[in-house]
Design goal:
CATH superfamily of the largest domain: HUPs
CATH topology of the largest domain: Rossmann fold
Number of strands: 9
Order of helices and strands: EHEHEHEHHHEHEHHHEEE
Shape: globular
Radius of gyration: 19 Å
Helix content: 25-40%
């Protein structure tokens, strides 16, 4: 596996790389990330290259968020990428990615106004900007993203569509711990008591999906069901939002349909956890 830290070396690598499948990450890798790399390896076949990036992007952190405390574990991340089958990892410095006098960013004005975007203003503009830069640098033919951050996946699909980027986007199912908790770099911030309650997020979403399949399709009823479940099983958490939305537009729905999604975010003391579930009835 090749480690590249500069744009110059990345462009030299890309000239002879052929077909490339890309997995962008912010590091602090866990099994969820390596599953994406392995999926890219499966998609690529023997003739293509799998590229990953490790870069903690400051533009997607708010002023009171955890950019400075976000874990940096490069040596372990590189080992995990190598074991998962990556051919190249791009791990640039801040100066390599952003000019000190940068003055251009990409702004998303529809899908980012709801869910996490409503409580994290500017976050998805930061995501769009860095993903566009990484796509320009790596020039992948395909890219792999997880469904855990469903809003991010939808926005990246819109970014590629609206800016005519020749990149095929793959959405991969959320990787979970044995008790159902979605794997996340921020799970390490949970206290033992919070970690014991955190699987209730997934359990509540499953309850809602089962209710929907039984004929409970109203947004108010489904969100109330989740609120009640979390109040009973995750009282150390504070709900940020629970929302029934369309899977593609992310716009709120009054009634669930076959292409709808319930998404939620819950604050614990030092961690904000997100999860979602696709609904059918």
């Amino acid at each position: 596996m090749t480690l590249i830290e500069t744009v110059k070396d990345l462009r030299a690598w890309r000239k002879n790389a052929g077909h490339v499948i890309f997995v962008p990450t912010m590091g602090a890798l866990h099994e969820g990330h390596t599953t994406l790399v392995r999926e890219a390896r499966t998609l690529s076949g023997p003739e293509s290259k799998v590229a990953a990036s490790i870069f903690v992007n400051p533009l997607q952190f708010g002023p009171n968020e955890d950019f400075d405390k976000y874990p940096r574990t490069l040596e372990n991340d590189l080992m995990m990428c190598r074991e998962a089958g990556a051919d190249m990892v791009f791990a640039p410095t801040m100066k390599e990615v952003y000019h000190a006098d940068r003055s251009i960013k990409i702004s998303e004005s529809s899908l980012s106004t709801v869910l996490c975007g409503a409580s994290r203003p500017g976050h998805f503009d930061g995501v769009c900007t860095v993903v566009a830069k990484l796509f320009n640098l790596v020039q992948p033919d395909e890219a792999v993203f997880g469904k855990k951050d469903y809003q991010q996946l939808a926005i990246i699909r819109r970014l590629v569509r609206d800016l005519d980027m020749p990149v095929k986007i793959h959405g991969i199912e959320t990787v979970r711990e044995s008790d159902g908790l979605a794997m996340s770099s921020r799970n390490r911030y949970l206290s033992p008591a919070e970690r014991a309650q955190a699987p209730a997020l997934r359990a509540a979403l499953i309850e809602a999906r089962e209710a929907c399949q039984s004929g409970v399709t109203g947004a108010k009823n489904l969100t109330h069901l989740i609120q009640e479940y979390l109040a009973a099983h995750a009282n150390l958490g504070r709900v940020d939002y629970i929302a029934l939305v369309d899977q593609h537009s992310l716009q709120p729905l009054d009634i669930a349909h076959s292409q709808s999604l319930i998404a939620l975010a819950v604050f614990f003391d030092k961690a904000r956890l997100i999860d979602n579930i696709e609904l059918s009835h």
